[in-house]
Amino acid sequence: MRVGAFSKMLLVLSLGPPCGIALLFASHPDLAREFGKNLTAFPVSSLAVALLLVLTQVSLQSLRFWAVIPPDAGLGVVEAARIFTLGDWANLFAPARGGDVLKMILMKRAEGGGSIKLPWATGAVLADKVVDVGSLFLVCAITGSLGLVSGWAGAASVSRPLALVGAGIAALLLATIVVAGSARTARLRDVFRQLLEGLSALKHPARCPISVSLGVGAWAAELVALGVLCAGLGFSPSAPHLAFAVVLLNVGITVPISFASLGVYEACLAYGLSQSGLTLPSAIAAATAHHVLEVLGIGLCAAAFSLPIRVLRRGTSNSVPGGIDAHQAPLSCGPEPGLPKGTR
Questions:
Q1: Helix (H), strand (E) at residue 306
Q2: Which of 23, 148, 314, 335 could bond to 244 as cystine, CB 3.0-4.6 Å?
């Protein structure tokens, strides 16, 4: 019964945002008509360029994930990219960031990471999140959108809740350090040590700057892709407004409450774009196109990075040591028919 009630709650939450947008269009038919007109007005060239930029964005994010993993894990670039894209693909549909849990499991099961434990993988995923947020902050500073973000946070009265959340996370980390330091069991100390080892790339003199640079490049590709879509509708929002819209989008979808963030994604991004001069129908159309391209780009990259791994594993599974093909290997190691036991 509890599982059924929880599933019903998730279903209600998932249907809420799309139903809200449908209700908005039903009560404003002129808005719905303008939205449909804008949605079909994108030039094919704009959609193609935006998709190429999204693929670049996801590829750079995958490289960032590989760079933030400590080198002693033994994970190659393609394997790390496969883990990242499959996890992000799962994040589109799984509640409560289930794709991040999938990343940890895939890291533990990876062929090149036989010694990876779940606490170590958890630290690596957390390190990637830290670099992701930090690189977005750098992009906001470079584009000059920090004023827009801080002004919105003050007007929306979200600065205090965000500060409380940050203080809570800091207190939790401090409590974890204290508990781990005073733990009597060696197991808890070992878990904490593995977690810190997974985070060790943040203090690496080479990997940390590389991962941050890749993160900045990924955010820049997303901003340009969004700008290309807006330009296809005849609008040219400035870089600060584009960065502001992306910040609102990522704040809104941090905790998914609907299937593939449907509705929430469009609402947050459309609101941010509307602050730069786009009409509401145009902003919703640009946000919808961007959402579709992001889902398509992540799916294509996940398939592209998974294919060579699957082919390689299939090739190795079809052969046995010594270069003998598995199909030609003998089916039995017993004596030949017609010979007594112990006779060759």
A1: helix 280-317
A2: 148
Task: Yes or no: say if 7 and 252 are a contact pair by the CB < 8 Å rule.
Answer: no
Tokens (6 digits) for 126: 């957390």
Alpha carbons within 13 angstroms on the beta-carbon side of residue 216 total 14
Could you give the 3-state DSSP secondary structure of residue 255?
coil
What's the chain's average pLDDT? Answer: 80
Neighbours of 316 (CB within 10 A): 11
Nearest to residue 241, comparing CAs of 274, 266, 217?
A: 274
Query: Helix (H, G, I), strand (E, B), or coil: what is residue 319?
Result: strand
Residue 295 has pLDDT above 90, yes or no: yes
Q: What is the pLDDT of residues 262-278, one digit of tens each?
A: 888 988 999 999 988 89
Distance CA 333, CA 172 (A): 59
Residue 336 is given by DSSP the state P
Residue for token digits 């360029």? 49
Give the three-class secondary structure for 333. Answer: coil
**Pair 278, 272: CB distance under 8 Å:** no
CA-to-CA distance for 208 and 216, rounded, in angstroms? 12
Residue 196: pLDDT above 80? yes
Q: Are 50 and 289 in contact (CB under 8 A)?
A: yes
Task: Please answer whether residues 218 and 61 qualify as being in contact, where contact means their C-beta atoms are separated by less than 8 angstroms.
Answer: yes
Neighbours of 237 (CB within 10 A): 24
Tally the C-alpha atoms within 13 A of residue 43's C-alpha that lie toward its C-beta: 10
- Helix (H) or strand (E) run with residue 324 in it: strand 324-325
Distance CA 267, CA 16 (A): 12
Q: What is the pLDDT of residues 331-344, one digit of tens each?
A: 444 444 444 444 44
> What distance in Å separates the CA atoms of residue 11 and residue 98, rounded to the nearest whole number?
16
pLDDT digits (tens, 9 = 90+) for 12-69: 555 556 666 667 667 767 777 887 898 899 999 999 999 999 999 999 999 999 999 9
